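User: Teach me something about this protein's shape.
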Amino acid sequence: MLQVSLLIALILLSLAVMGCMFRVLKGPSMADRITALDTIGVNLIAIIAVLSMMLDTQAYLEVMLLVGILAFLGTVAFAKYIERGVVIEHEDEDRDDRDDPVDR
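Assistant: First, the predicted structure itself:
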């Protein structure tokens, strides 16, 4: 009975990922796309957890943690891109025209 429940959960989570992929591709705004990508990350963590339960192993727990960290970093990078227009700022762009002894 547990295996059947886990299989149904796996199918439903896979459908949720496909629905989020549609929102990523056709989303009306950048915020919708970012939210969908974050939701895909959460669904992937749940899929890995269900697979770990189905296979009766703890080997995938580190993978779940890694996917969670990568999803968080992706969300932070997108938020920074929306706020400033760039993800990685270079030092040359941040400098002021102040009197700096290094420039002399």
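Now, about its shape. DSSP finds four helices and no strands in the chain. Residues 20 and 39 are 7 Å apart (CA to CA). If you'd like, I can walk through any region in more detail.
User: That's plenty for now, thanks!
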